[in-house]
User: What shape does this take?
Amino acid sequence: MPLNVNSGQVISPPRILIYGPPGIGKTTFAAGAGKKSIFIPCEEGADVVGADRFNLCEDVGAVMSALDDLIKEDHDYKVVALDSLIGLNGLFGIRPVPMLVFPASNKSAVATAKATARH
Assistant: This one.
């Protein structure tokens, strides 16, 4: 029986996370990332850039349906933007939690972080 062996390097397409405060241009940047971009909007705002987009996803099923459409149907899209991950977390019922980064030697910052985590 022959061995099922593969060789060579598989190059995956890049995945990029764009992080920043509201209004900084994350959606605009994603819209300009390729000649043919499509958005899967999980919150309001993707319509401001004029790119192609699915209807606003109001639940996880709508996100999965959009992804299924892109997988199963023929299309010319080169870039898919899930906008935004905070909105997607909300569809899962996950409340966004701010991340605090600080030196562990700073006892005041550690105490503040500990108090914040309790809420």
User: Anything to note?
Assistant: The first helix runs from residue 26 to 31. The chain is about 30% helix and 10% strand. The chain has a mean pLDDT of 77. The longest strand covers residues 37-41.
